[in-house]
Specification:
It is a single chain. α4 crosses α5. This protein is of the alpha+beta class. Helices cover 25% and strands 34% of the residues. The chain starts with 23 loop residues before the first helix and ends with a strand. A hairpin with a 7-residue loop joins β7 and β8. It has two domains: 155 residues, Roll (Pnp Oxidase, Chain A), CATH 2.30.110.10; 43 residues, no CATH class. It is built from five helices and nine strands, in the order αββββαββαααβββ.
Length: 212
């Protein structure tokens, strides 16, 4: 979370169990609203961590595109490294790091693909240029040069000019992360941070305090 030596720079109040919403998705909504209200850049940006079948961990930043009590949604190229990892090991960790307000949220859970109709509906809601880019870039594959990538984009932009309907790629779509745990981290002075975790137990959530 960076080097902070001045205790006065940390929030005076912490995070107490009595402050938490009954359901973790409601608590997430509250903190996301705070991040948006604080004017943080890209508050929906989240680090997505996966692991391959060979046990290689990988992390990258994606954008959260939806969330509710069912889970958290993002979209990507299914043939990318994250896509192949999730095919092999359908589990993931999400990390929202809102350092300016001394908060982070860590979510761990299982991952499933969204259906083709839902993926296509979101694809067609994207800007035209982003739709072309999804076709132009076979994410995570090696390319010979930037010029090669730009030429591919230009060819596709000519095939589907502005105003034309771009078909949704079969290799692109959405994923749903179904949470098993939520950890809400709130920074405090002297490294005595607050960490409160919701852990799923059957149909209920158990709240536990973790040592910092």
């Amino acid at each position: 979370m960076g080097v902070v030596t001045d205790a006065a720079s940390w929030p005076a109040s912490g995070l107490d169990e009595s402050m938490l919403a009954a359901e973790p998705d409601a608590q997430f909504d509250s903190w996301m609203a705070d991040a948006v209200d604080a004017g943080l850049p890209e508050p929906t940006a989240v680090v997505l961590a996966t692991v391959s079948a060979a046990g290689q961990p990988r992390a990258r930043t994606v954008l959260l595109k939806g969330h509710d009590s069912a889970g958290f949604v993002f979209f990507t190229n299914r043939t990318s490294r994250k896509g192949t990892d999730l095919d092999e090991v359908p589990r993931a960790c999400l990390l929202f790091g809102w350092h300016a307000i001394h908060r982070q949220i860590i979510i761990e859970g299982t991952v499933s693909r969204l259906g083709e109709d839902e993926s296509a509906a979101y694809f067609h809601s994207r800007p035209h240029a982003s739709q072309i880019a999804a076709w132009a870039s076979r994410q995570s594959t090696v390319v010979g040069s930037r010029a090669e990538l730009d030429e591919r984009y230009a060819e596709l932009a000519q095939r589907w000019p502005e105003g034309a309907e771009v078909p949704a790629p079969g290799f692109w779509g959405g994923y749903l992360v179904t949470p098993q745990t939520f950890e809400f981290w709130h920074g405090r002075a002297n490294r005595m941070h607050d960490r409160l975790r919701y852990r799923r137990s059957g149909d209920t959530w158990i709240v536990e305090r973790l040592a910092p």
